[in-house]
Structures are given as C-alpha cells and as structure tokens.
Amino acid sequence: MNNNSTPCILFPDLKITSFQGSTSYKFNPNFSLKAISTQTEIQLKSAGSFIPGIHYSYYIIDNKSNSELQQSSQRSNTFEVILNAGYYYTFVLNKTWYASIGLTPGFGINYTNLLTRLPDENNRTNYFNGVFRINSKTGIGYNSERFFGDAEIGAYRSFRNDYNSTITIATTSITYQIFIGYRFKAPKFLKNTVDKIQDKIPI
User: Fold this and answer.
1) Residue 80: predicted pLDDT
2) Residues 63-79, mean pLDDT to the nearest whole number
3) In the chain, what's the furthest Cα-to-Cα distance?
4) Of 100, 106, 102, which Cα lies nearest the Cα of 36?
5) Residue 118 covered by a domain
6) Local confidence band at 6 (pLDDT 50, 70, 90 cut-offs)
7) How does DSSP assign 2-15, residue by residue?
8) DSSP secondary-structure letter at 68?
9) Does residue 173 sit within a domain?
10) Would 65 be classed as within a structural domain?
11) Which helix (H) or strand (E) holds 200?
C-alpha cells in the first residue's frame, strides 16, 4: 500500500444474498411502461405518467470466514420496504425512435437482525432505521414491428443512518444496458388460439 492510497478493511469471504421486488401503478393509460421495459408495446405519441409504488427487498450479509485467524464475525438479515413516488416520460422522436427518462424518490423503513459471533458467546441485536432512496433511468431506443433495441443507464442511491450512531451509510449502484432483438411471426396454430381468446376476453 502506498502513501496515497486510502486504507480500508477487506473481507475476502464476505457473502451477500439479495432478493428484491417492486409493485407500482401508472395513472396515465396512454403511457406505456412495456414499451421501455420489455418492448412488447410501441409508444406512438409522447406521454408521461406519475407512477407511485412500493419496493421491497430482503438481503443477507455474512462475513464469516474459514480462517482460524478470525476471532469474530457478523451476519445481518435485513428487510426493507420503501414507498416510491416516481414520474416517467417517453419522447417519441418519430414512428420508431424514442427517448425515455424517469426519476423515482422514495422513503421507507429498514429492519435489521444482527448476529455477532464472538469466541465465548453470540449476541443478537434488532433495530429499525429510516432509509431514503432515489432511482433514475434514461435511455434511447428503436422499436418497430420487427426490430427493436435500446441503450439505457440506470442508477440508484440510498441513505440510512447506522443504528445508534451518527454514521450515514450510502449505497450507490449504476447499471448500463444495451440490447437488440427481432420479433418472429407466431406459428399459425398459436396465433389462432390467441385470436380466439382475445375475441372472448379482449386484452
């Protein structure tokens, strides 16, 4: 380590397991989330929508090591629920090209069950923290009857105070995604089945 580097604590055996999900509702029926997320629809005119929702996650962080030098370790089981209030807008540049942008701030509660393993005994601590999170997404894409593609950048940043201290924990994530695709014609037997269903139950 040179003198200009920042000292840090390393956890070579740190394991993180995470499960996440979200549920939301769009107020504007003329705005298509599928057009920018799964490309199963095409946005024909520029439109935006207020989209409130709830984000829930459960994750486990464990730094236990097989090394005999480790005298103590911790495992945290955390459940987090955040209420979101977002807004997304899609600019239709022409019949096939579009640009999209969205921003979703949210506030919620973080519950943690912390297990501290010591040589003589194990201690458990339970605590709640408030958490603030903001998500953003922007991209540009192409969506026609047969071909589609998209290039987008997504980011989120969350803040929460550490239990019983003045420390603020900040988490940042940035993702990049580029994809292209082609829509094949559905087999005749499958198309006929779907048409019959749509005649009885319009989708």
Assistant:
1) 92
2) 81
3) 73
4) 100
5) yes
6) low
7) -TTSPP----TT-E
8) T
9) yes
10) yes
11) helix 188-200
Q: Is residue 188 helix, strand or coil?
A: helix
As a whole number of angstroms, the distance between CA 95 and CA 109 comes to: 43
Instruction: Residue 112: give the domain boundaries.
Output: 15-200
Question: Is residue 98 a contact partner of residue 141, using CB atoms and an 8 Å limit?
Answer: yes
User: Is the separation of the CB atoms in 50 and 78 below 8 Å?
Assistant: no
pTM given for the model: 0.72
Quote helix, strand, coil % in the chain, to nearest 5: 10, 60, 35
Please indicate, yes or no, if residue 7 is contained in any of the structural domains: no
Domains of the chain: total: 1
Q: What is the pLDDT of residue 38?
A: 82
First to last CA, the chain: 62
The amino acid that residue 153 corresponds to is I
Distance CA 164, CA 185 (A): 60
- Cα 60 to chain centroid distance, Å, stands at 17
Residues in Cβ contact with 170 at an 8 Å cutoff, skipping those fewer than 6 apart:
157, 158, 159
| Confidence tier at 102 by pLDDT (50, 70, 90) | very high
Q: What is the pLDDT of residues 142-167, one digit of tens each?
A: 988 888 999 999 998 888 776 665 66
